[in-house]
Amino acid sequence: MSTKDWIEKDFYKVLGVSKDAKPEEIKKAYRKLARDNHPDQNPGNPAAEQRFKDVSEANDVLSNPEKRKEYDEARRLFGGGGFRFPGANGGGRTSGGPSMEDLFRNASGGDAGLGDLFGGLFGGQGGGAGGRTQRYSTQRGPRRGSDVEGEVTVDFSDSINGVTVPMQMVSDAACDACHGTGAKAGTVPRVCPTCEGSGMQTSASGGVFAVTEPCRDCRGRGMVVDDPCPVCHGSGRARSTRTMQVRIPAGVTDGQRIRLKGKGGAGENGGAAGDLYVVVHVNPHAIFGRKGDNLTLTAPVTFNEAALGAEIEVPTLDSGPVKLRVPQGTPNGRTFRVRGKGVTKRDGGKGDLLVTVEVVVPQSLTEQAREALTSYGEAVGVGNPRAKLFART
């Protein structure tokens, strides 16, 4: 049963007893309702079956003293499902505030029992508030720096092997003129008299809760600037431009977004720095392409090499040429694999080089070459290679 059910369901009404009913009354009411609505007594009656489930659920809570105490306390604090601050606006639902479902999810991490909920919400003091004022705080503590995004363009070979490139960044940092205080040179901020330097302000509602929120006078900074810095106008922050060396890992792809933790904007009040996100653009290569962790290359071969077979040399990206054996009768478009001449993988291994052969057809022939090819055709006697196409139509 979810925590929402504890609040929205009136178990006393389900059993038809009063809120101060004795355990004996609850037991008697449950036995009668369970007997009247039992599925064996009402075969094929879904309404009676649901009624039986409801009274069983209500009895499970109200017959247990601890569960009943938690249930009564929850109903008193949270009403009919809306999060209420007793004493505020006549005890009505808080406008714009968190819903009961959201509050429970945040406080207990899901549909846990109310004992767990109250332990988290009241700092481990249990479900009974005992009339003492409890604090529902919105304080966030130190502020994390902003994330920064930039772009770099690298050559194809650098994307395969990795490279370190300079990158100019623009982000928020402490103002150089006032060193982050927000006060004009020669002056200092004073402690906010409203929050006494805490940056937070508590407003008591006269009920169970007191709400803590950022101080309105100092806007959560804890200090008040009477004579603001003319550069940052009292904010203590300014635009910062700096150049840093960014390492682009081996094997990066075009358009890949790299996260560099803690290299973004500086934090405030001791907060951690933000992250730097670098979008990498890769210039295309003149002859090499890429397919996953493999490099691709198209190598032209002559008709003689494809027909008779040959050993050819092909280039690699960064380790000199390698020899490749083209078997006799190799058709146009066949792909061969050269192991370990591809992209550096994350585990330190290397992909392969995929070489696709392309048979080169002469653009012009001498009379002697023409006669030789004609003689070749007559000697081979292949006939029409497209005959099978028509045979299957």
TrEMBL record:
Q: Per the UniProt entry, what is one GO biological process?
A: DNA replication
- Domain called J: residue spans: 10-75
List where Basic and acidic residues composition bias occurs: 65-76
Which domain of life does the UniProt lineage start with? Bacteria
Keywords of the record, alphabetical order, are: Chaperone, Cytoplasm, DNA replication, Metal-binding, Repeat, Stress response, Zinc, Zinc-finger
Binding-site positions, Zn(2+) 2: C192, C195, C215, C218
What is one term from the GO cellular component aspect held by the record? cytoplasm
Q: Which cofactor does it need?
A: Zn(2+)
Q: How is the cofactor bound?
A: Binds 2 Zn(2+) ions per monomer.
Query: Locations of Gly residues compositional bias?
Result: 78-95
Positions with a binding annotation for Zn(2+) 1: C175, C178, C229, C232
Q: Can you tell me where the transmembrane regions are?
A: none
Q: Where are the zinc fingers (CR-type)?
A: 162-241
In residue numbers, the region (Disordered) covers 32-105, 125-149
Major subcellular location class: cytoplasm
Query: Which cell locations does it reside in?
Result: Cytoplasm
Any GO MF annotation of the entry: zinc ion binding
Q: How does it assemble?
A: Homodimer.
Q: What family is this protein classified in? A: Belongs to the DnaJ family.
| Domain comment as written in the entry | The J domain is necessary and sufficient to stimulate DnaK ATPase activity. Zinc center 1 plays an important role in the autonomous, DnaK-independent chaperone activity of DnaJ. Zinc center 2 is essential for interaction with DnaK and for DnaJ activity.
Question: Which HAMAP family does the UniProt record give?
Answer: DnaJ
* Function, in words: Participates actively in the response to hyperosmotic and heat shock by preventing the aggregation of stress-denatured proteins and by disaggregating proteins, also in an autonomous, DnaK-independent fashion. Unfolded proteins bind initially to DnaJ; upon interaction with the DnaJ-bound protein, DnaK hydrolyzes its bound ATP, resulting in the formation of a stable complex. GrpE releases ADP from DnaK; ATP binding to DnaK triggers the release of the substrate protein, thus completing the reaction cycle.
Any idea what this protein is called?
A: Chaperone protein DnaJ
Q: Which organism is it from?
A: Microlunatus flavus
Q: What is the lineage of its organism?
A: Bacteria, Bacillati, Actinomycetota, Actinomycetes, Propionibacteriales
